[in-house]
Design goal:
Layout: H1 3-11, E1 13-24, E2 27-38, E3 42-46, H2 53-60, E4 67-72, E5 75-76, H3 82-88, E6 89-92, H4 104-110, H5 124-136, H6 152-165, E7 170-174, H7 182-197, E8 201-205, H8 209-212, E9 217-222, E10 225-231, H9 235-244, E11 249-254, E12 257-262
Parallel strand pairs: 3-8, 3-9, 6-7, 7-8
Antiparallel strand pairs: 1-2, 1-4, 4-5, 9-10, 11-12
The structure holds adenosine-5'-triphosphate (ATP).
Residues 24-25, 27, 29, 47, 49-55 line the site of adenosine-5'-triphosphate.
Protein name: ABC transporter ATP-binding protein
Domain ABC transporter: 15-248
Keywords: ATP-binding, Cell membrane, Membrane, Nucleotide-binding, Translocase, Transport
Amino acid sequence: MTAAVKSRAINSVAIGAQSISASLGNVEVLHGISLQLPLARWTSIVGPNGAGKSTLLKVLAGLLPHDGHVALLGQAMAGLPAKQRARQLSWLGQNEASADDLTAYDVAMLGRLPHQAWLAPPSSHDHAAVERALRATQAWDWRARALGQLSGGERQRVLLARALAVEAEVLLMDEPLANLDPPHQTDWLLMVRELVAAGKTVVSVLHEISFALQADELVVMAGGRVTHQGACRDAATHRALEQVFDHRIGVHDLAGQWVALPKI
Ligand SMILES: Nc1ncnc2c1ncn2[C@@H]1O[C@H](COP(=O)(O)OP(=O)(O)OP(=O)(O)O)[C@@H](O)[C@H]1O
């Protein structure tokens, strides 16, 4: 057993963050956040606009300079070679720009770059991973179409396929349901459950609170701080959610699911 795997088995932590502070445009927007995100679980990060959710996710992905310490699968993120990190951690950003001239297939193939040697052509394994990913998000039929010619939801499904094609242990997704219609939102949910059942770790920033409540764990943020972390089924988590949204929503048990409804 390698040291990293041993450490994962002992800690059961996919990502550990210690005393994270980060600034955007000379303004500190994350203030000393410490948290541990469990391995092989789905954690959703929620909170009001401007709470710092996307900024935190970028820090956890190693995409933003910060103070403090982030560990990925038991290893210090700062010390990880870029390619190793890119194989272990897959990223789907919010409103992500991508080359509109590339076909959906080629966009999904970008997810395989961390697995390929410099200038080497994709292997049969790379092609198989891309096909699996495009089929999983029902984007296979448009594989030959340019990204720029797809609707918002179709485009999002291609970008999701790119994130899946990495076949990383940890997937970070910022507003993955953006532009998806209800059936494809449900498909995303089922896909996340499959990933987690297969031992993967998923961390998502979500505004759709009823979807976020389907996760294993919830991280609640406000004002650049974590105000609560707990199981989605816990009453304390529901109260923290209602509080962070100024009691404008209520969490209810409906048909065996926890849902958030507006208080009107
Ligand atoms: N380039 C920037 N310069 C200064 N402040 C910024 C910059 N980008 C974002 N911010 C501020 O940082 C804070 C955190 O932003 P962030 O995008 O992380 O919030 P969020 O919780 O993801 O919000 P939302 O739910 O609206 O997507 C906000 O107050 C935002 O106004």
